[in-house]
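Quick one:
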Amino acid sequence: MKKFLSAIGVFFIVVLLAMFGFAAFPSLTFPVGTIFHIEQNSSLAAVTDNLYNDHMIRSEALFKSFVIIFSGERGVKAGDYLFDSKESVVQVARRLVNGEYGFTPIKVTIPEGFDVQQISALLGKDIPGFSTSTFMTLADPSEGYLFPDTYFFNMDTSPDDAVKAMRTLFDQKISSVQDQISESGRATSSIVIMASILEREATSSNDRRIIAGILWKRLDDKMPLQVDAALAFALDKDGTKLTSDDLATTSPFNTYKNLGLPPTPIGNPGLSAIEDSISPASTTYWYYLSDSKGNIHFAETYDEQMTNETKYL
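Output:
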């Protein structure tokens, strides 16, 4: 059957080429070196019009016919297509149907917990001509909601494209735990802020869940969180090098002076940290600290915390 359908396709291609003749060849003004962009959910009619107006095809009817032959109901694939030489309408249609973009995507891995500034620097390093300042302006309102993962970007990926890709993936990931968030009785925004703190406070899920339990208890009991990471984020400093003057800073991110969570996330948490935020461990601990090797030490009382500070810091 497949061979039969394939033979029919070849037959119709030959017939179309014979009917349209000259229109099947590349346009004399074909814009070599062009990157042609197709938005998500673009209609075939819109894509065809853009190709024709950009002198990449001679016949809209011929292009649509080849797309239907090559794809059936699937249509063309969204993305950026590099055309570094003149191509016939058959080649253009085949490439857009199969998603043959014409260049190697740029692989960028965003680590869990990275904030907007760190992500911006990473994208600026890997994507030629990428505007880090524009990205930071666009991404800043989405701090915490840019999902850390491995992305494959194009050479001309814009800051807006990058933000949209990360926001879209975050929405997909958070939907998988939305029921658990609802059951926790806490707002999604609070869960994300807590998860962003956990990313900076510990590396293992076990430690993060214990810390989450401590911090949620402190919040519920109207105690200050006293989290160095939040203030360090606001001051753009290493959390292990905060001074007494820093701790006296007037800032909504100073959880020594203000009750409650910071006003926004302090980085972009991964799914594991979000899950740890949703499902904190129930313990008798109220305090914790991290030593110079990154090991977490927990305490039930303030006196035990002071002993740990003397012993480990």
